[in-house]
Structure formats: structure tokens, C-alpha cells
């Protein structure tokens, strides 16, 4: 009975874990490939600017498709598309063509994430979601370890191009596991997907109406996303920081990320232990603040050991923050609107992220990489403290919030 109950969630977790392991391989390989081609930290930062730009573009309409379609088959289609795009990258020698392909890969990923989140929410009964979110963080942590570790091995015994081919296999395997899942659709889904501009405009008005009613939720959502977009901006400096400040080899850089993966794994175990006794808001607030502290410690590092400690700290508390945030969203957004709300809110957050990554990339051309990383991590800590104060005040005022 228990095995039957958890069969489909296990399929989902397996698909997510394999796909995420492949994404880590892809991320490290494409970062190093671009850095080797250009020797520029700004060129690597350009990869991180593509992701929010892609999400900005699809955010206008992706939710309308997600909430009106079979999320299962949409996820399979997007996995296959990403595999086909990645398999062509090793044959390219133009940085601009690579950027273009990365844009399409990120667009597919920008649709996949809210589709996957919507499907997960449909798959699980409400009382199981917080526990499942903690398990999902555990799976992400496994991918966090295995992905960079496998990437490091591939870099040592093979090439960056070979690592990308392995990534293609992970996406196809993920698509196969997703095919085994039941076909679940939101209540707003239609038999055929035929989205008009009027449908999209109507969805914008619907999200705007929800936002006015649930304004305290929107405030907390955006502050949390503000902290997380700073992690993405800081990550865009990671390769340059490792090369220029710490003077690490490709293999050492891969091992540094693996140490963060170990922290993520231990943090996920910790999160699974506290999930029954902590609210979503408590996990989100405490996790975000401690992640920011880890980034501050990392930003001041000048040796491999110091950077490893910082990576471990920030990764340890990421599962706590993410589990709290995912549960917080599920508690506040209606399932049949989840795709539209997540996509449009994500578009706003990623617009800001694009500007921040661009600013940090340009700042790294004027100031030292370490100075830029220190400044960004301190700002992140300030935003995390602001999140804590905001949630505390809203809770004290007894304003509806999850």
C-alpha cells in the first residue's frame, strides 16, 4: 500500500534528480567553455544574463499554456528539446551562436520549472506537500553532489564537450521517467491548446486581481526572490572568483562545488528532520538569512579552505530556505492559477535579476572580482534581514500570510 502510494512521487523525484544532475554538468561545462573561449569574466556573466532574459520573455505567456495543458507531456517535450539543443553546442565555435542556443535552452527551462512545480502540486495531497518539498531538497542535494563530481571526473578523463553529451543523456532519461507518471491537468486545462492574445491578457488581469487581494504574500514573495536573485548574480562571478582570486584549476573548481553539494546534502537531511516542527515562514526566513551569511564568509575568502567553508555553510541552509519557500507558495496560490502566477511573478523577479547580473558583470571590469562579490553578499544579507523583519511584522499584525 505504501509502495503504491509513493510510486509516482518516486518516479517524479527520480526524473527531477537525474535532470538536475545533468543541469549541473551543463552549467559547469558551459561556464568553463565560454571562459576558455574568451578569457573574460564578463562573457561568463553573459550566460547568467541570458537566463533571466529568457524567463522575462516566456513569463508573459508560459503560465497561460501551463494552466491550460497537460503538464506531463509539456515536461517531456521540453526535456527532449533541451537535449537536442545541447547536443549541437560542442560543434560550435562562435560565442554568439552558443549564446543563442543557450537562450533557447533557458527558454525551455523557464517553461519547464513552473510546469513541473504545477504538476508536483497536482500530484500530492496538501498534507504531504511540506514533507515532499523537504524530500525534493534532498534529491536536489544529491544532484548537487553527483553533478559536479561527475563533471569533475569528465573534465579530468575527457573533455568539456563529452560532459555536454552526458548531459543530453540525463535529459532523455528524465523524459522517459516522466512518461511513466499519470497524466494530471489543472482544472482550467482544455482539450486543445489554442491560446489567443485575449486569453493571455485576461490572465494578466486575473493575476493582477489576485495580487491586490494577496498583497502581503506578494511582498514576501518578491523580497525572498530579491535575495535569491542575488545568489544568481554572485554565482555569475563564481568561475572568475575561483580562477582570479583563488587560482584554482578546473578540477579544483569542480571539487569546490562538490563540497557545496555535500553541504546541500547534509542541509537537506537537517531540513527533513525539522520540517514537521517548523512552519514554512520560519524555514524560509531562517534559511535565507543563514545562506546570506555563508555568502558573506565565502566572499572574504582568499584560500581554497576558506571558500570551501563558505560554500558548505551557504549550501547547508539552501534546502531549508527553498523548502520553506515552495511550501509557502503552495499554501498561498490556487493550483489552477499556479502556472500563470508563478510565470508572471518570475518575469518581474528575473527582470531585476538581469539588471543586477549585468551591473555586477560591468562592475567586475572596473573593480576587483572579490570587491564585487563582497558587495553583493553584504547586500544579500541586508535583504535577508529585511525579509525576516517583514514576515515578523505581518505575522504580528495577524495579516493573512500562509
From TrEMBL:
SUPFAM superfamilies: MFS general substrate transporter (SSF103473). It is a multi-pass membrane protein. Coiled coil: none annotated. It holds the Pfam family MFS_1. The chain crosses the membrane at residues 12-35, 41-61, 73-92, 98-122, 134-157, 163-185, 206-231, 251-271, 283-300, 306-329, 341-366, 372-391. Residues 1-395 form the Major facilitator superfamily (MFS) profile domain. The keyword Cytoplasm does not apply. Keywords: Cell membrane, Membrane, Transmembrane, Transmembrane helix, Transport. It is found in: Cell membrane. This is MFS transporter. It comes from Paenisporosarcina macmurdoensis.
Amino acid at each position: 500500500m505504501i509502495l503504491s502510494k509513493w510510486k509516482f512521487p518516486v518516479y517524479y523525484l527520480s526524473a527531477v534528480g537525474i535532470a538536475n544532475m545533468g543541469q549541473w554538468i551543463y552549467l559547469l561545462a558551459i561556464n568553463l567553455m565560454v571562459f576558455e573561449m574568451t578569457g573574460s569574466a564578463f562573457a561568463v556573466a553573459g550566460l547568467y544574463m541570458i537566463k533571466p532574459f529568457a524567463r522575462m520573455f516566456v513569463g508573459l505567456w508560459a503560465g497561460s499554456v501551463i494552466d491550460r495543458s497537460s503538464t506531463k507531456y509539456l515536461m517531456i517535450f521540453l526535456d527532449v528539446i533541451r537535449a537536442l539543443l545541447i547536443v549541437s553546442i560542442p560543434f560550435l565555435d562562435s560565442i554568439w551562436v552558443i549564446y543563442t542556443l543557450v537562450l533557447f535552452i533557458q527558454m525551455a527551462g523557464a517553461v519547464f520549472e513552473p510546469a513541473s512545480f504545477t504538476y508536483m502540486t497536482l500530484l500530492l495531497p496538501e498534507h504531504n506537500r511540506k514533507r515532499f518539498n523537504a524530500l525534493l531538497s534532498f534529491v536536489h542535494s544529491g544532484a548537487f553532489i553527483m553533478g559536479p563530481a561527475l563533471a569533475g571526473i569528465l573534465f579530468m578523463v575527457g573533455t568539456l564537450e563529452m560532459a555536454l553529451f552526458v548531459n543530453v543523456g540525463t535529459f532523455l532519461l528524465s523524459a522517459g521517467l516522466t512518461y511513466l507518471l499519470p497524466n494530471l491537468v489543472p482544472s482550467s486545462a482544455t482539450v486543445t491548446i489554442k491560446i489567443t492574445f485575449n486569453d493571455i491578457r485576461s490572465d494578466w488581469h486575473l493575476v493582477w486581481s489576485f495580487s491586490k487581494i494577496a498583497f502581503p504574500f506578494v511582498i514576501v514573495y518578491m523580497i525572498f526572490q530579491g535575495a535569491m536573485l542575488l545568489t544568481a548574480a554572485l554565482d555569475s562571478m563564481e568561475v572568475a572568483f575561483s580562477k582570479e582570486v583563488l587560482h584554482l584549476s578546473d578540477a579544483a573548481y569542480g571539487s569546490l562545488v562538490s563540497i557545496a553539494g555535500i553541504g546541500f546534502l547534509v542541509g537537506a537531511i537537517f531540513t527533513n528532520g525539522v520540517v514537521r516542527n517548523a512552519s514554512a515562514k520560519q524555514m524560509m526566513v531562517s534559511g535565507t538569512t543563514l545562506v546570506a551569511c555563508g555568502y558573506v564568509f565565502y566572499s572574504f575568502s582568499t584560500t581554497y579552505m576558506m571558500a570551501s567553508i563558505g560554500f558548505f555553510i551557504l549550501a547547508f541552509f539552501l534546502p531549508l530556505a527553498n523548502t520553506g519557500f515552495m511550501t509557502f507558495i503552495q499554501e498561498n496560490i490556487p493550483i489552477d492559477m499556479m502556472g500563470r502566477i508563478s510565470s508572471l511573478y518570475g518575469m518581474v523577479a528575473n527582470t531585476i535579476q538581469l539588471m543586477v547580473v549585468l551591473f555586477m558583470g560591468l562592475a567586475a571590469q572596473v573593480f576587483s572580482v572579490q570587491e564585487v562579490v563582497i558587495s553583493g553578499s553584504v547586500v544579500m544579507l541586508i535583504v535577508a534581514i529585511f525579509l525576516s523583519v517583514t514576515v515578523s511584522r505581518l505575522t504580528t499584525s495577524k495579516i493573512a500570510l500562509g
